[in-house]
Amino acid sequence: MARGNRLQGELQVTGRLHVDGVLEGYVDSSDDLAVGRQGVVRGTVRARQVTVNGTLEGELHCDSLHIEKGGRVSARVYSDELIVDPQASFVGERRMQQRAELPPGSDTEADDDCLEGLDYQLIDTLPDRITLSRGEDD
């Protein structure tokens, strides 16, 4: 999508998508998404690998997110891998992707044992959000 163009709505893509314009809404890609320096993506995005040089805001579901120098992401991110380059910005929340199905024979009760003896008051003292950024002088 070229610079100067604006697209709003629901988009389903089977190949790679590069955005240098403004894209707002829901994007579902079976491949990779790249947000160029002039690109702005707002909404809910599902893609395999996402690279951001511009701006991404909203909610993102992907295998891998790479925020390159100058890139800005303000989103709730569900990703197995997150890379933030120096002079990039990430504001939001990142969680590992949820697996839709448990493998056959898995025992979910066994995971509850790891929570035994956990001090829940300690968890309540943790911040809701953490902002990682590197200034120009660093």
TrEMBL record:
Domain of life, source organism: Bacteria
InterPro entries noted in UniProt: BacA/B
Chain spans, region Disordered: 94-113
Family: Belongs to the bactofilin family.
Protein's UniProt name: Polymer-forming cytoskeletal protein
Source species: Marinobacterium alkalitolerans
